[in-house]
Design goal:
Chain lengths: ~110, ~110
């Protein structure tokens, strides 16, 4: 099993550009999550999904969108990138409210 | 406000020595407490998960304790190895339908040869 995979590993965006961060898991987990980790701060939940077709906002959803058309995939869309979105983004998955398994992260810089 | 505070922020120890990391939380209602290890440039990896009724849980050289009355937890690392160099994150789960996780900022541990 590959676990949770994320692409790309690194990305530099210009202000106002858009991009999609990809996340996939092969553990048949029903719950998936997107977090951001800023320097010196704890992880913050952006969006989560409890199953295909169901998504909900976390603590810091502004500027982001998600979709969950399949159990395996949970892409995160950034529209009109801003410097405040410079961060490391982690995708995670779990079987219901159990242990969360994290991907390797995507380091995003917005200039 | 639900918060998780960890101390110290950073720590340097010699290889082979023991150390203890601290976590205080104000999360309510409480569901469980988790310790994660995060290597530089990697995602967090779960070490232990403890529920309200568990006082101690071990995972190899890692032993976590929980005092739900004082809302404190500790992570003890025995006979440290160079590979233990990482950030250790305390995470508390709220006892809601979704079980939102509240993350601490982590303790950065450096094990020196």
């Amino acid at each position: 099993n590959a676990g949770v995979t994320q692409t790309p590993k690194f990305r530099i965006l210009k202000i106002g550009q858009s991009m999609t961060l990809q996340c996939a898991q092969d553990m048949n987990h029903n719950y998936m999550y997107w977090y951001r980790q800023d320097p010196g701060m704890g992880l913050k939940l952006i969006y989560y999904s409890v199953g295909a077709g169901i998504t909900d906002k976390g603590e810091v959803p502004n500027g982001y969108n998600v979709s969950r058309s399949t159990t395996e995939d949970f892409p995160l869309r950034l529209e009109l990138a801003a410097p405040s979105q410079t961060s490391v983004y982690f995708c995670a998955s779990s079987y219901s409210t159990g242990e969360q398994f994290f991907g390797p992260g995507t380091r995003l810089t917005v200039l | 406000k639900n918060q998780v505070e960890q101390s110290p922020q950073s720590l340097i120890i010699l290889e082979g020595k023991n150390c203890t990391l601290q976590c205080n939380y104000t999360v309510s209602p409480f569901s469980n407490l988790r310790w994660y290890k995060q290597d530089t440039g990697r995602g967090p990896v779960s070490l232990t998960i403890m529920t309200f009724s568990e006082n101690t849980k071990s995972n190899g050289r890692y032993t976590a304790t929980l005092d739900a009355d004082t809302k404190q937890s500790s992570l003890h690392i025995t006979a440290s190895q160079l590979s233990d160099s990482a950030s250790y994150i305390c995470v508390v789960s709220e006892n809601t339908g979704f079980q939102k996780l509240v993350f601490g900022t982590g303790t950065r541990l450096l094990v020196s040869p």
